[in-house]
Amino acid sequence: MDSLIAIAAVILYGLAIATIIPSLVQQVGIRAKTVLASACLALVFHAWLLGDLILSGNGQNLSILNVASLISFIISLFMSVAMLKTRIWFLLPVVYSFAAINLAAATFVPTAFITHLEHNPKLLIHISLALFSYSTLSIGALYALQLAWLDHKLKTKKALGINPNLPPLMMIERQLFKIILVGTGLLTVTLITGFVFVQDMFAQGKAHKGILSCIAWVIYCILLWGHYHKGWRGKKVTWFALAGALLLSLAYFGSRFVREIILG
Question: What are the Cytochrome c assembly protein domain coordinates in residue numbering (predicted)?
Fold first, then answer.
């Protein structure tokens, strides 16, 4: 049953992608209702399957692939909602592709990392905040890439104005810093709850998570300070946003990828 649900979700994500990409290339209007309907159905199947993968059995299976699929679901959900107000068509194929890949991997390459969060609600709060902060800042990294691409096209005098599917550069920049501001706030609370609720946060084998997360937090704070006080824009913003997201990815997934996937 899970395999059928996963296949249905992947096909629906693929349908949304297949609707977007040709319109981007041909610079014609995108059938937004088709994309939205496909994405909504894919998200329903995705959520259904996540419930089976994570909550079935004894405890919660927070394996690296299940967590990656959960994060992809959160990002896809937020971006699908944003689609209703903003022309983010350039980013949606990337988001939906990762969602489909992560969902398929979690389904067909099962791994296990059983936890019992029902006995530790404080840890549940910390993990939930970590998931939302990482998802938000990952969206910020995607916006930074889109900003850099649009800026490059404009500087090389490519005619972007006639493409109805691309958003204005300044609007993307404003949204980018709103997202990073929210994500940094969530990351701040995540670190605070980590120090308060997780007693062995810097124990052997876990210290890299706290250290890399703190470094990422500093990078995002510098980025926000540089933008609002020094007027930073362009490539510097992109590099800072990507560096922060990379450090968080290494913090959240680095050691567990080696332990669960490479070493089995």
Answer: 39-262
Residue 176 exposure: Cα atoms within 13 Å on the Cβ side: 29
Tokens 């199947």 belong to 45
Report pLDDT digits (tens) over 178-210: 999 999 999 999 999 988 877 766 665 567 788
0.85 surpassed by pTM: yes
21 neighbors 93 (Cβ within 8 angstroms): yes
d(CA 261, CA 67): 13
Tens-place pLDDT, residues 33-73: 999 999 999 999 999 999 999 987 788 898 889 999 999 99
CA 233, CA 226: separation in Å to the nearest integer? 9
CA angle 242/74/125 to nearest 5° reads: 95
